[in-house]
Design brief:
There is one protein chain. The protein has helices spanning 6-17, 90-101, 125-140, 147-162, 169-176, 199-202, 221-236, 246-249, 255-279, 287-299, 306-317, 343-356, and strands at residues 23-32, 44-45, 47-60, 65-70, 75-80, 109-115, 181-186, 192-196, 204-210, 322-326, 333-339, 363-366, 374-375. It is an alpha+beta fold. The chain folds into two domains: 6-30 and 49-178, 2-Layer Sandwich (Ribosomal Protein S5, domain 2), CATH 3.30.230; 194-366, Alpha-Beta Plaits, CATH 3.30.70. It has a six-stranded mixed β-sheet, sandwiched between helices. It has a four-stranded antiparallel β-sheet with strand order 10-11-9-12. Strand 4 and strand 5 (75-80) form a beta hairpin. Helix 4 (147-162) runs antiparallel to helix 5 (169-176). The radius of gyration is 20 Å and the shape is globular. This is Galactokinase.
Length: 376
């Protein structure tokens, strides 16, 4: 497949719609360094925007028609403003629905979508799509909404429009990322803090291992974990698990809810500690925290899988100083923090383990902290 570029998506728009687009907008995928399943618990998370992006070429219409062409599926959805499509087109059409609820006077739109963000890899391809569409539509209507409001519109699009109960981390990093930084997001008050994350300057690489085990956040398991966290908070008499201590979490009587709460409160503390270490450029000290995060996600939150566990263990044997699954879980990707120049050894170690089990070869990418959604 040809590389994703502004020029290619503009040509795609012409091929699909028969006339030139008004412009092209892009939003990044993300990898979460640490802070998994904490966002909907009012906790802390530390995502990094990827250089891999979703691009949308856009032109407004005035006849109420919505057309969306995806290069990944080579299909065109055609519907009306206010309708939410099924399948892949649910995401862009849910954004239009959400913005219309906020009073944006949408008269119709044509969209062409192309992306270099792997789908189903836990790298937030969905938020890259929703945020690129939201930013494009907002700017084509003279920007009545600020980026905080666009984050909320995209969250509602996924939660209520698509039925994927995401917490808000993905949309926030897509719209507020800065190059060479991670973004410490406090999901209790919505505040953000850029955290220095110059991998090359610190002598490290961050390898993303896409296990190619596909998952869907709308399949019920993500929603179940969210409900269990709410039940645990209720059992403790707090509004969210952010307000609970590690000692309090151990008092939850139900063993499953106790484990869920234990993960959340310890993960919040791990995230706080990683941010502290990165502020001091102490990259080499965060490896154990990454390892502990994976163990907690595997054992207490139960969202890992065999492929992720094998990838993490093989990465550590290959020389990574720390590794963990990233994203919602049930498949997707793992990350490995690797001394610069040692990526090939880690990739080789993981590849050999997958081959020995007869699994499909994983995909790898080197994560570089990129910027936020923008017009190209």
């Amino acid at each position: 497949m040809d590389a994703v570029s502004k020029e290619s998506v503009l040509q795609q728009f012409i091929d699909a719609c028969g006339y030139p687009a008004t412009g092209v907008w892009a939003a990044p995928g993300r990898v979460n360094l640490i802070g998994e399943h904490t966002d909907y618990n009012g906790g802390l998370c530390l995502p990094v925007a990827l250089e891999q992006r979703t691009l949308v070429a856009v032109a407004l219409r005035s006849d109420g028609v919505v057309r969306v062409h995806s290069r990944q599926s080579d299909e065109t959805y055609t519907g009306s403003i206010g309708d939410i499509a099924a399948g892949w087109a649910a995401y862009p059409t849910a954004v239009l629905w959400s913005l219309a609820l906020e009073g944006l006077p949408l008269g119709g739109i044509d969209l062409a979508v192309d992306s270099s963000v792997p789908v189903g890899a836990g790298l937030s391809s969905s938020a890259a799509l929703t945020c690129s569409v939201a930013l494009a539509v907002n700017e084509l209507h003279d920007s009545p909404f600020n980026r905080d409001q666009l984050v909320q519109a995209c969250i509602r699009a996924e939660n209520e429009g698509v039925g994927a109960p995401t917490g808000g981390m993905d949309q926030t990093i897509a719209l507020f990322a800065q190059p060479s930084t991670a973004l410490l997001l406090d999901c209790q008050d919505g505040s953000t803090e850029p955290i220095p994350f110059d991998l090359h300057g610190a002598g490290f690489e961050l390898i993303v291992v896409d296990t190619r085990v596909k998952h869907s956040l709308a399949d019920g398991q993500y929603g179940l974990r969210r409900a269990q966290c709410l039940d645990a908070a209720t059992a403790l008499g707090v509004d969210s698990l952010r307000e609970a201590t590690a000692n309090q979490a151990e008092t939850v009587r139900d063993p499953i809810l106790r484990a869920r709460a234990r993960h959340v409160v310890t993960e919040i503390e791990r995230t706080r500690r990683v941010a502290e270490l990165l502020r001091s450029n102490r990259f080499s000290d965060i490896g154990e925290l990454l390892d502990n995060s994976h163990a907690s996600l595997r054992d207490d939150f139960e969202v890992s899988c065999e492929e992720l566990d094998v990838a993490v263990a093989a990465a550590r044997r290959g020389g990574a100083i720390g590794a963990r699954m990233t994203g919602g879980g049930f498949g997707g990707s793992a990350i490995a923090l690797v001394p610069e120049g040692s990526g090939a050894e880690v990739i080789g170690s993981v590849s050999r383990e997958f081959a020995a089990r007869g699994w499909r070869a994983p995909h790898f990418l080197s994560a570089t902290a990129g910027g936020s959604a923008t017009r190209l």
